[in-house]
Amino acid sequence: MQRRESPVRPPVVLTIAGSDSGGGAGIQADIKTIEAGGGFGTSAVTSVTAQNTTGVQGSHRLPTDDIAAQIRAVCEDFDVAAVKTGMLAARDVVDLVAERAEGLPNLVVDPVMVATSGDRLLAPEAEDAYEDLIAEAALVTPNADEAEVLTGRDIDDPDDAAAAGRDIVEMGADAALVKGGHVAGDDVVDVLVTDETVTTYRHDRVDTGATHGSGCTLSAAIATRLAHGDALAGAVASGIDLLARAVRYNLDVGEGPGAVHHTVELRDTAAREATSEAVESVVAALTETNLAALVPESGMAVAGATPYAERPDEVAAVDGRITLTMAGPRPAHGVRFGAEPDLARFLLAVREHEPSRRFAVTCRLPDDVEAALESLDGPVTSVADGEREADATPEALVERAVAEGDDAPVAIVDPGAVGVEGAVVVLADGAATAVERVEAVLDAVS
Question: Under a CB-based contact definition with an 8 Å cutoff, are residues 216 and 110 in contact?
Answer without folding.
Answer: yes
